[in-house]
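[User]
Um, tokens okay?
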Amino acid sequence: MRNTHEPLVFIVSGPSGSGKSTLVKKLLELPGMMLSISATTRAPRPTEHEGEWYNFVSPRKFQQMVEADEFLEHACVFGKYNYGTPHRWVDEARAKRYDLVLEIDVQGAEQVKKKLPAAVAIFILPPSRQELEKRIRARGEDSEEEIRRRLDRARQEMEKYSDYDYVVVNNDIARAGREVQAIATAARSRSADNERRIREILDTFGG
């Protein structure tokens, strides 16, 4: 864990089916990491539980949160559902002296980078369109129309890769997991983030 009061924020984005949630779990295996729980207006999927990855709220409640300026970022996805990252997770990470992981889309990532320029943005790419479609179909959750929409959106999202600090191609989950952990470890070691600890060591040399 770093010797600073300000949390380092990691943004993880990628198209649906890219494996970003699995790679977020790899980041959370590192000590001193915590997950930001997003708020969304969509209904939970059968395998999802309240407060695990999402807090499920009504459209009215979400709008109230927007009006109260409770979000670090928020966006409407597919023109249907709203997603947002509450500010409180940054405050909680700061209080716990943890770093924070945000799994958000490209719209949200752009908003966060404007507000928190030091945030480390990682984009997860699938190895090909064919593999992405295979993964989406394997979940068995989406209609043909929804699959087409997700693939179209994937292309649009992937064109934003240059806005990110790092790109990880997820053609092997074990290797990709090691890559995202290496990115986090390197980011934590940057001298600007360890200024206090470095000064303490230098002080032991006197002069």
Observations:
- The domain at 9-36+99-203 is CATH 3.40.50.300 (Rossmann fold).
- Residues 173-188 form the longest helix (16 residues).
